[in-house]
Design a protein that fits this description.
Organism: Rhizophagus irregularis (strain DAOM 181602 / DAOM 197198 / MUCL 43194) (Arbuscular mycorrhizal fungus)
Strand content: 15-25%
Protein name: RNase H type-1 domain-containing protein
Number of helices: 9
Helix content: 25-40%
InterPro entries: RNaseH-like_sf, RNaseH_domain, RNaseH_sf
GO molecular function: nucleic acid binding; RNA-DNA hybrid ribonuclease activity
Pfam families: RNase_H
Structural class: alpha+beta
Number of strands: 13
Largest sheet: 9 strands, antiparallel
Length: about 375
């Protein structure tokens, strides 16, 4: 019974501190700085820390939360978390990482209203003080752009993307990544010429100010006149006028969004449009480079290395001609220190030994924390 009560106290304190690790695993708060009220466990841990002591309890689970990047406790001090209402605003919401508040491309902070799609936060009413504080902490100029400072930019969050598109119909709105122009676009479905393809009309954001990032302006959409996206020219059956910017795209790279008509052939998109654009880019790169099983393996290794500072890796890549004249290509890497981990996968398209070796190096680096010292041993020249 006492063990169960102790575990509950630990989890409650961890939730209040917004820490991704149990307070028994890591504690660096002095008693004079402690902001937690009416918690005996917190007071005891702080008192022990003041006297350079720690507490350990055998058999009690160390509740280390994984699956996110950049813990909130690493960008905010203990005092800031409580004095700015961050603990109160996020307690019980299972939000422990900055990546949970960022777009899927890892470079832009979500709007406050976008959080209702990502977390259990009720976003009705005014923007709270805790979110404004984090915004100020991460972004250079929140009024001009949602792009976070370079030090806080993260990698693609592929898991946030729903890969299934259900009931896609004519006049539905989607976002997709267009590889010819190298960025995600917004489109309206015109037709479905094939089972796995749709024909869309390209729309763009009607910007009021070119000097301010689109993500902090109203998502008002207008038809694109003409750009590199165009792959077809068709005529409007009613007016016999050319619809100028049409493209056939793959359904599997789409993310569905909502938009409503306002006036003069303009639409206003759902506030989540910017996150949908980032998700479309993630889907494209995720499918292009590796399947979900491989992504899961790479992320699992990365989660085990989040706290490591010095990492040693051996990489290898190879191409083999087999009896059927089919060419097989693959790569692998082994992490020898500080933990033992290994990974291997097959590679398709444009086989070469240099490509195999390079992908092995790239994949191994993707598992390493941003500030780690990485030593890679490879047999390539």
């Amino acid at each position: 019974m006492m063990k169960d009560i102790f575990e509950i106290d630990c989890k409650q304190l961890q939730s209040e501190l917004l820490s991704n690790k149990s307070p028994l695993a890591t504690w660096n708060i002095r008693l004079k700085d402690l902001q937690v009220k009416h918690c005996l466990l917190a007071c005891v841990l702080a008192l022990l820390y003041d006297n350079m002591l720690t507490i350990k309890s055998s058999g009690v689970k160390v509740n280390q939360i994984q699956g996110g990047l950049l813990p909130i406790v690493e960008i905010c001090t203990h005092k800031e978390i409580f004095s700015n209402g961050i603990s109160k605003g996020l307690k019980g919401k299972n939000v422990y990482f900055v990546s949970q508040l960022m777009s899927s491309d890892g470079i832009r902070l979500l709007r406050y209203k976008d959080l209702k799609y990502r977390t259990k936060i009720n976003t009705q009413g005014r923007i709270p003080r805790w979110f404004k504080f984090i915004e100020t902490k991460l972004i250079e100029d929140p009024l001009k752009s949602k792009k976070v400072k370079t030090d806080y930019q993260l990698g693609y969050n592929i898991y946030s993307v729903n890969t299934k598109i259900d009931n896609l119909k004519t006049k539905n709105w989607i976002t997709t990544f267009h590889d010819q122009i190298g960025k995600p676009i917004i489109g309206r479905v015109l037709d479905k010429p094939k089972e796995d393809k749709i024909r869309i009309e390209h729309w763009i954001q009607d910007l009021e100010n070119d000097q301010i990032s689109p993500s902090v302006q109203l998502p008002i959409l207008k038809k694109c006149g003409k750009c590199e996206v165009k792959t077809n020219q068709i005529r409007n059956k009613r007016s016999n006028t050319k619809v100028k910017c049409i493209a056939d795209i793959s359904i599997e790279n789409c993310v569905k969004v909502n938009a409503n008509s306002i006036q003069n052939d303009h639409y206003i998109a759902d506030m989540a449009i910017y996150e949908a654009l980032a998700q479309a880019e993630c889907k494209y790169y995720g499918k292009m480079s590796m399947n979900e099983c491989i992504i899961e393996k790479v992320n699992e290794i990365a989660n085990n290395l989040t706290q490591e500072a010095d990492i040693e890796i051996y990489t290898d890549g190879s191409v083999k001609n087999i009896a059927t004249n089919e060419i097989m290509m693959g790569c692998a890497f082994v992490i020898s220190a500080p933990i033992k981990k290994s990974f291997n996968c097959g590679i398709a398209d444009n086989p070469s030994s240099n490509k195999a070796e390079l992908i092995a190096v790239i994949l191994s680096l993707m598992t390493c924390p941003k500030a780690a010292n990485v030593k890679i041993y490879s047999d390539s020249q």
